[in-house]
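pasting input
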Amino acid sequence: MLPTAERPQAAEPAPDAVRETDVDELRDAARHQARRRKERRVAWTLVLPTLVILVLALGYPVGWQLVTSFRKYGLKQQFGKPPEWVGLENYKNLVTDPSLWAVVVRSIVFCVIVAFATVVIGGLMALLMQRVPRGPRVVLQVSLLLAWAMPVVAAMTIWIWIVDWRRGLLNWLLVNVGFEDAEGHNWLAQPLSFFIVAGVIVIWMSVPFVALSIYAGLTQVSGEVLEAAQLDGASGWQRLRYVILPLIAPVLSIVLLLQLIWDLRVFTQIKMLQDAGGVANETNLLGTFIYQLGTGKGDFGMSSAVSVVMLLLTVALSWYYVRSLMKEEAS
Amino acid sequence: MNARRLGNVGWSVVAVVVALVWAFPVYWMLNSSLLPNAVLNESTPRLLPFGGSLDNFKVVLDDPGFIKALGVSLAVTLITVVAAIAIAFLGALAVSRFRFRGRLGFVLALLLIQMLPAEGLFIAQYKMMSSVGLLNNILGLSVLYAAAVIPFTLWMLRGFVAGVPAELEEAAMVDGLSRTKAFLKITFPLLAPGLVASAVYAFLQAWNEFTVALVVMTEEQSRTLPLWLRGFVQASATREIDWGAVMAASALVAVPVIVFFMIVQGRMSSGLVGGAVKG
């Protein structure tokens, strides 16, 4: 950083003059450095409140969880017995106990299916929006925004009302198109139909963001390129496959990643459907499972281990998302 | 040409049908909220709210639980928004106006933290809050909410601050203003829309949040609106669910959200997908 080292050639002509410039440069450099130091101090002061609150409200719980996941920390420990270290036992249970393992697998399967379905439906809607004239497009956009804006809990009450086994609209509709068996059928009582209902609800909520994002990406595909492809004899499918898809690939991958991350953490939807009469044990996904372990059974050791697994899964997925965001930033 | 026009009409019809299907649940909420329970309990659903009234809304507004939950929600939301915007704004300034070591790492960490699921943390947060006696405490919940929304709020604000060229400020400084004054007089007014958008984002998050509140607000009198609303539809062997009131309550919770949401939707999604969607 010292400027003297950078200018050896100046040492030759006149020694006196050199000393003078050196002094000037040194003073400049010192001032410059002082300013930089001050800048840095100001910057860190500005960042400090953010750091403090994040460490307090998120960092500390993460740390506690990590520590607790290596301990036996059940009901007894809550009543004063000191938690003992058990090493990886909680994790071992998680991997070897089929009922615990089932929750992890179920969550991942649900997440992947729903995320892909969301992106496919959203993509088709985006293409539809591009295909139609302005009027119908705006109607569709407004309707998507409405669905997107609904608070999760309010949306859940509506859906629970729609699938209500006694007077819900769904069963009435099914009976009237000929499925007499639907009369009084409780969709939330069987795990499979429970997850189909949950999946439909999650897709309904998530499609608007995906469709509108992909549509925004589609509007960036220049009409000239498409026209050129058409003149060259490319069919509709070929244009989609070889021109449009490669151009909107960045948007597609980002929305798919976000959906995967978000669908791994569905909690409110599952919890409220369970409240409404689902069988809790066979319909748990990671979120509700942790909740049950922690608040219901008071097994903090195990719930911490599952939480750590969930956090690791999320961070692994998010890493790609963050990297692609940063790349977009840099470009 | 004729085939093409026919195709246009066909696709337009499809688009409108899809729109109706997607908006239907929202319509169904409003429709049911206007109908008396006697009608809702009939075996054939009524598809249009003929003979409807605002009675269900009156039932909800007269419920002391609603007023209480509204108060809690308003307090938590207000504290969250003010704290999050103030803190995130300072951070956004640092990140976009200063070059300092660790800046990139800080931004990366924020983006990662932003993705952390509340479900992976809430039991630990519950333990923490209970050990410091902040369960069922409005301030305690607000701190958790502020921490949850600050990363994305900072990221959003950073974009807005970066959008105001630093040269404007520098020019004002050349004209003799101090750095602080230049900032307050020149940059700050230009940032107002960004601040509003971020504030609305924080509002929506805090107002709609269910998961953390469920764990931390364990007592009936400290319930937020979403928790109160959930109480309505919990299955119970002893009582019938009053669907008309549930739908009216849902509408009351949802309508302000929908209005605010429309304001910030564009900015929020462009923050989420970054530069992947330009324009």
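fyi DSSP finds twelve helices and no strands in chain B.
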